[in-house]
Amino acid sequence: MSRKSAALISILLAAAVCAAYIGLRHPRVRKESQGPPAGSVVQNPAHERASLEELLKRRPGHAPILLRLAQLDMEEGQPAAARARLEQLLAQEPANVDALIELGRACFEAGDAACAWSSTAKALGQNPEHPGALYNMGALNANQGRFDKARELWNRAVRVAPGSDGGRKAAEALRRLR
């Protein structure tokens, strides 16, 4: 192979590597034929569940997988299944605020008010300014007719994180309460 050919191949290889790097680092540069950009993929809960269950077999007790499966259980109206997963997660990570909040929701949906109160209170104990925990505790109070306490908690959620999911839900709950 001549020097010219080797140099030309090196230049072409470098250009290909650069193009691949740019395509990976800057998704909007990618062609549309390569599929939708990240974040715009339509989710398939059944496929997601199957993938997560397979991952859980390889990584038993993995907290993020258990949490997401519990969320899917809740979306599918299965609070008892969600509760079992969350209790498994919390046995390993008792201070996991997200799991405590989800457990409170699952318990409430399953009709176990004591568990809902306890889990949500533990979440607030771990993070007193967590907007999701503040919203949920406000909802528990409102369901018991303690509207002043609910209003106080929801106002805190809006104050600490107005753009968060918990902050938005709290703002909506405050509008409905008036």
Could you walk me through the main structural features you see in this protein, from its secondary elements to its overall organization?
It is a single chain. Mean pLDDT is about 85; it is low at about 10-35. Among the domains are: about 45-110, Serine Threonine Protein Phosphatase 5, Tetratricopeptide repeat (Alpha Horseshoe); about 130-178, no CATH class. By secondary structure, it is mainly alpha-helical. It is built from 9 helices and no strands.
Quick recap:
By secondary structure, the chain is mainly α. It has helices spanning 3-25, 45-58, 63-75, 79-92, 97-110, 113-126, 131-143, 147-160, 165-177.
Strand-helix topology:
Elements: H1 3-25, H2 45-58, H3 63-75, H4 79-92, H5 97-110, H6 113-126, H7 131-143, H8 147-160, H9 165-177
Helix pairs in contact: 2-3, 3-4, 3-5, 4-5, 5-6, 6-7, 7-8, 7-9, 8-9
Could you name the key traits of this structure?
single chain, 178 residues, mainly alpha, Serine Threonine Protein Phosphatase 5, Tetratricopeptide repeat, 74% helix
